[in-house]
Structure to design on (333 residues):
């Protein structure tokens, strides 16, 4: 009997109500709508304004959306993996709280942090658990409240990031659909180019670090752009070659929504037509761990059973990778 594959069986998402438009940002920093749009493709991003709500709130809302929409009994979930780079607190794990709040009383949970690649790494982890036969229902959530670590006086970062969450449920598939292959990579020599310097054990938060803005996101945009295009394209090329998957057989290319120019350059390198490259960065900005599950949720209605999906991501660390997935169900509407 063939080993079951790990397939996505349900999808959910959540974005906050408040919309931070480019026009609003024009009043906050020295920038304008044309400059932002031409360089990033972003027109607006969602922000969780309530200071008493953290990333867990986003994840809970996305998970409940999935559960309610698909009539899932949360008590049947075996494991909750929570991909995030903005946990509620250093201790305890945010995913554990989320699991309890959604009623996943029989699940264990943990956080997974690989910056913008957290969701993709989570897919790899969940697929391995499913393929082992030990677990049947795994909830994978990608969520980030990026506004909590953004300096809204820094136009190089405040125009890019937004808040949001997406969730997928994975289970065993006997038809050969689901995760087919993966190729994950990392390179620690790049961590200085996209980082939050303070708040960890190396540089604990203090009055000095706060005054210096060391708890905000800092990035070397040109270096990150160059690496993101090169690495996402190279892993995409490898996974297509390894699986003898010609361009004509790729139905969808789902890329991390970091920058429209990065998305376009990656698709061009892979020679995949833009009609097969869904994009929602214009509405959400870069939501870090949430970009891929939000993309899956927004375009779920277009995916058909058996469609070949290539998913790619790139994040701080550096972390990057690609997954080849066969979609497991037809649209419901």
């Amino acid at each position: 009997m063939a080993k079951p594959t790990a397939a996505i069986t349900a999808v959910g998402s959540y974005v906050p109500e408040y919309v931070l438009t480019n026009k609003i940002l024009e009043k906050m920093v020295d920038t304008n709508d044309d400059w932002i749009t031409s360089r990033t493709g972003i027109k607006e991003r969602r922000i969780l304004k309530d200071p008493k709500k953290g990333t867990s709130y986003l994840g809970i809302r996305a998970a409940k959306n999935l559960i309610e929409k698909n009539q899932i009994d949360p008590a049947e979930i075996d494991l909750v993996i929570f991909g995030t780079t903005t946990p509620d607190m250093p201790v305890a794990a945010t995913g554990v709280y989320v699991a309890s709040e959604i009623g996943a009383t029989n699940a264990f949970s943990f956080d997974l942090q690989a910056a913008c690649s957290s969701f993709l790494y989570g897919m790899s982890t969940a697929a391995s658990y499913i393929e082992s036969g030990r677990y049947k229902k795994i909830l994978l959530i990608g969520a980030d409240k990026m506004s909590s670590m953004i300096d809204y006086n820094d136009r190089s970062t405040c125009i890019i990031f937004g808040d949001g969450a997406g969730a997928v449920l994975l289970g065993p598939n006997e038809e050969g659909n689901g995760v087919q292959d993966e190729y994950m990579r990392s390179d620690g020599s790049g961590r200085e180019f996209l980082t939050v310097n303070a708040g960890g054990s190396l540089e604990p938060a203090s009055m000095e670090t706060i005054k210096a803005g060391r708890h905000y996101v800092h990035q070397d945009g040109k270096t990150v752009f160059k690496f993101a295009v090169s690495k996402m394209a190279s892993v995409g090329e490898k996974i297509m070659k390894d699986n003898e998957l010609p361009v004509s057989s790729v139905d969808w290319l789902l890329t991390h929504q970091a920058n429209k120019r990065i998305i376009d350059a990656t698709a061009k390198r892979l020679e995949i037509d833009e009609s097969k490259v869904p994009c929602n960065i214009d509405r959400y900005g870069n939501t870090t761990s949430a970009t891929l599950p939000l993309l899956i949720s927004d375009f779920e209605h277009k995916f058909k059973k058996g469609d070949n999906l290539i998913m790619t991501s790139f994040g701080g660390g550096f972390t990057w990778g690609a997954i080849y997935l066969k979609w497991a169900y037809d649209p419901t509407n």
In short: The chain has eleven helices and 13 strands. The radius of gyration is 19 Å. The chain has two domains: 5-176, 179-326.
